[in-house]
Steroid delta-isomerase
Amino acid sequence: MAPSAEDIRKTVTRYVEAVATGTVDDVLALYAEGATVEDPVGTEARTTEASLREFYGIIEPLTQTGELLTLKIAGNTAAFHFSLVTELGDKKVELAPIDVMTFDDDAKITSMKAVWSQEDMITR
Amino acid sequence: MAPSAEDIRKTVTRYVEAVATGTVDDVLALYAEGATVEDPVGTEARTTEASLREFYGIIEPLTQTGELLTLKIAGNTAAFHFSLVTELGDKKVELAPIDVMTFDDDAKITSMKAVWSQEDMITR
């Protein structure tokens, strides 16, 4: 049975929180086994748990604030615009991509593709 | 050669205009041959020009206003949040999906997937 929109919404909300303020384990717990991550789109997809751990491990120690801006759901797919603000000394770097995710029946993430480019990364 | 972000931006901007106020031919001119449309995601993909003509033909006669709200580009992919307001008598119906598109080297659309559900359609 396809996941409900409400379950997908919960997973996305937890994902933004976990990426911003959680641990790698918090993020990985939201992914299904065998999930793929292509971030940004056009780079080689990460297809192993080790490569996902490496990816999210980079941002784990950073001081970040996450905010879900827009979320659309259709079937087993979500597309959402969110903001991730990283504190770097007295500066803040904001990245606001649109992520596209698919989900399994338990609303675990089976694939993530992040659509953003350098111009979406703003230092202030 | 991959299309430039600027060319993709032009196609997306023209798409939102064409869907809102243009003709079916205006919209179809932005699509590559063999392009597919899945709107919303989870429904059967349209894979022929005739089925794309049928799809966009439904909204061609409507009085609509389109607005591009957020556009993210990565490689040959764009994800964008846009609003389409349709005037129905003294009421307005707003639909604001996130569309995900891929493009060929000439920045023509090779696939479109629209992520939205009934809750994204607001009557006012």
User: Anything to note?
Assistant: Residues 5-123 of chain A form a domain with the Nuclear Transport Factor 2; Chain: A, fold (CATH 3.10.450.50). Chain A has three helices and seven strands. Chain A has a mean pLDDT of 96.
